[in-house]
């Protein structure tokens, strides 16, 4: 809390100091009625697509320009997967199929030879979270009844099961810290000694959703066990339900890095909502949903507007990864209202104030409608001042606006309520984590964005010790 407010004051003073160019333009996007929302989302989706090169001749389908480690652009592999999910929701919420072919092509191109989102181009730097983001987008395609791929291609549900199965495999789990997944998959990678919330959160979330979709208890058992592990290692605060970033195996995960990122808590919230629904409304999962929802709104929506606590308000402190988090949080909150309807009245007003703040600052660029990152500031921040008008920011505004249509759509489907995706419980079993043959890498395609940034943020966030990676 204290951190959030001091950062907000910091933004306020930045604005007061005139480092932010005042916007001359009127607000471009209107979102008062469903028609206005659809129209605004259509333009936001078009503008976001301009960042994507993957459907052009000679470019690679599924990814945004990158990775930065190869000086090919700002975006890591996982963010392409997150983008695919954003457009699956865009179609589901608005009914506009314009990008479905682009998204289908991207989702299928990145599956890798074993159809489990471990493509050779990215396995050397693979995080469980990176793979998890692609798996969650495949899961979403199944839940939203996104048009099926051709029959000779891997199917959405099977792809999600493949990701889950590779991660549930005993090879990816060990007894350090009493269980849990490591951040990185290849043992020689920096970050292999870090067990973090995002890696385990993706696995938990996917397990909860597979349980509800297939009614297969095995997924639910893994999900529940992972949640309990996150609780036992205190990555979820037992008093405040704030959700922290992770810890190191050499400290038995007791060196909890207390950086809070919005996507960690929102991912656990959405997964808990699926478990709540799967368990027919159990008190246990209802309590977890309530507490995580309170924590999400308290820590990340001061005045009802999404605010990325650990980096926002400090010029240049948010990485390209972090600049995309607000969109996922909006989408996961919206989905939560469908499967845990008791949260609806609390969530919808916040999604609205936050989306309104998002579009209020989409007044930049030559078009007068480009979006930035500083939603609570109310004005577009010129990229010359702070590089915050890229794909993540565009994706977040798109997600915030399209999620306002959540009341208009059917809940996520299941195998028994109209789902049309064909599964394969054994998917992913052809895979083997044979990384010893690969050259060591030192930087990952990191969805677990915290790692490098924490070094830079240390002083501002607090007094806990950050143990340098690779020690
Ligand atoms: C890529 O997709 C966009 C959006 O659908 C479309 O406007 C563009 O023409 C496509 N480009 C190619 C080469 O297919
Ligand atoms: C892997 O990377 C190479 C080099 O950038 C590229 O040509 C190829 O299309 C990529 N393969 C996949 C499946 O994305
Ligand atoms: C390591 O942490 C786990 C999980 O918190 C705990 O169950 C276990 O007892 C700890 N082991 C040691 C040696 O402290
Ligand atoms: C939820 O209720 C249905 C219908 O009564 C039942 O078949 C199912 O086993 C229940 N699920 C759980 C996890 O208790
Ligand atoms: C589970 O989700 C369905 C929508 O799929 C909803 O109608 C139902 O009320 C939810 N169950 C509970 C216990 O909230
Ligand atoms: C969540 O916050 C509301 C106030 O907004 C409060 O009434 C409720 O008791 C809280 N729930 C839990 C589980 O702490
Ligand atoms: C639902 O799952 C069962 C068991 O996996 C399968 O036999 C059935 O075909 C599935 N139904 C649909 C509509 O996919
Ligand atoms: C349930 O899921 C587990 C784990 O993937 C799998 O081994 C099992 O075959 C599944 N059961 C059914 C009935 O599909």
UniProtKB/TrEMBL annotation:
Query: What is any Pfam family matched here?
Result: Glyco_hydro_76
| Gene3D superfamilies from the UniProt entry | 1.50.10.20
Transmembrane segments annotated in the record for this chain = 447-467
Q: What is its EC number?
A: 3.2.1.101
Q: Which UniProt keywords apply?
A: Glycoprotein, Glycosidase, Hydrolase, Membrane, Signal, Transmembrane, Transmembrane helix
Reactions catalysed, semicolon-separated, are:
Random hydrolysis of (1->6)-alpha-D-mannosidic linkages in unbranched (1->6)-mannans
In its UniProt entry, what is this protein called?
Answer: Mannan endo-1,6-alpha-mannosidase
The species is Diplogelasinospora grovesii
């Amino acid at each position: 809390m204290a951190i959030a407010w001091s950062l907000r004051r910091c933004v306020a003073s930045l604005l007061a100091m005139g480092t932010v160019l005042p916007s001359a333009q009127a607000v471009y996007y209107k979102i008062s009625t469903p028609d206005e929302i659809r129209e605004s989302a259509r333009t936001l989706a078009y503008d976001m697509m301009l960042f994507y090169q993957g459907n052009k001749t000679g470019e690679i389908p599924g990814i945004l320009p990158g990775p930065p480690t190869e000086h090919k652009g700002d975006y890591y592999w996982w963010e392409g997967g997150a983008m695919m999910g954003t457009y699956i929701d865009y179609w589901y919420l608005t009914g506009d199929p314009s990008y479905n072919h682009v998204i289908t092509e991207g989702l299928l191109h990145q599956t890798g030879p074993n159809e489990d989102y471990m493509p050779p181009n990215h396995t050397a730097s693979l995080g469980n979270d990176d793979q998890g983001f692609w798996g969650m987008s495949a899961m979403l395609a199944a839940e939203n009844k996104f048009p099926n791929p051709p029959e000779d291609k891997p199917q959405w549900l099977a792809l999600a099961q493949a990701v889950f199965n590779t991660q549930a495999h005993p090879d990816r789990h060990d007894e350090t810290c009493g269980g849990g997944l490591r951040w990185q998959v290849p043992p020689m990678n920096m970050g292999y000694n870090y067990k973090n919330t995002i890696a385990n959160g993706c696995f938990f979330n996917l397990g909860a959703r597979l349980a509800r979709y297939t009614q297969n208890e095995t997924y639910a058992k893994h999900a529940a066990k992972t949640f309990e592990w996150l609780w036992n290692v205190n990555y979820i605060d037992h008093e405040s339900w704030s959700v922290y970033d992770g810890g190191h195996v050499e400290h038995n995960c007791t060196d909890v890095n207390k950086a809070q990122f919005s996507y960690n808590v929102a991912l656990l919230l959405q997964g808990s909502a699926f478990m709540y629904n799967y368990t027919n409304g159990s008190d246990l999962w209802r309590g977890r949903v309530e507490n995580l929802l309170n924590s999400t709104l308290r820590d990340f929506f001061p005045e009802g507007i999404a605010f990325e606590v650990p980096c926002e308000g400090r010029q240049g402190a948010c990485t390209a990864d972090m600049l995309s988090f607000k969109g996922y949080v909006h989408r996961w909150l919206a989905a939560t209202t469908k499967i845990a309807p008791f949260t609806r009245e609390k969530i919808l007003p916040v999604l609205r104030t936050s989306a309104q703040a998002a579009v209020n600052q989409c007044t930049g660029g030559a078009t007068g409608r480009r979006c930035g990152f500083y939603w609570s500031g109310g004005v577009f921040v010129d990229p010359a001042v702070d590089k915050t008008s890229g794909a993540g920011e565009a994706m977040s505004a798109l997600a915030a606006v399209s999620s306002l249509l959540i009341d208009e759509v059917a809940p996520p489907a299941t195998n028994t309520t109209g789902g049309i995706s064909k599964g394969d419980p054994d998917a992913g079993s052809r895979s083997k984590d044979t990384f010893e043959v690969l050259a060591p890498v030192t930087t990952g395609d990191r969805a677990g964005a915290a790692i490098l940034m924490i070094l830079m943020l240390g002083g501002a966030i607090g007094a806990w010790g950050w143990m340098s990676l690779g020690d």
